[in-house]
Input
Amino acid sequence: MIETRGLTMRYGDLLALDHLDLTIPQGEFFAFLGPNAAGKTTTIKLLTGLMSPTDGTAVVGGFDIQKSPLEAKRKIGYVPDVAEFYDKLTALELMGFVADLFEVDPQVARKRTPELFEQFSLTEYAGQRVENLSHGTRQRLAISTALLHDPEVIVIDEPMIGLDPLNARVVKEELKARTRMGTTVFLSTHLLNVAEELADRIGIINHGKLLVEGTVSEVRDRLEGDSNRNLEEVFLEFTQS
Output
């Protein structure tokens, strides 16, 4: 469902992403881990078509994001770490705007919108302008807009930032439930406990290079010594070596 081959990005002399090869099948929950400036956000921008790679390819839902961008983007629900909206729209108007962008049937949109608002505790904010919403509320709204067209692939960057424990739990349960129904989730996070709790497989990246991928157990077994080390210890071992 997501496949990259030799995906590379340079910013002048800086090699931000170094020939990334990844295959993430349908229905897998994949967590992408790395320190700051490791290449996680660059990867997400390339997967979602927000940037063009220096070299290599990214295929999402069977479509090359560079050759068939519209077809690929229809498959994707994208949640950035900091959501940017048309701030003068109300939350409800924003959902209508997104529904039009993705050509969601109006009857379907009218049904899904209140369901998502109820699920993510947004009902009371439906008539408020986005500019007046708190960071956490905007984050929940971003997730709702990403799910509105029932995407086959969800790409989500630091989804728990700004969420209280209750809403964080709702988001985690929804993402996991969607993978059980066949949706592919690509999640970038600094929260190792979230990755350990939810991910079927993880990948650890640093300095633009994928260091290791596999289940948590498989990644842990790649290290010599104690195989019972927790994910934080494993992460530090790979990224500081």
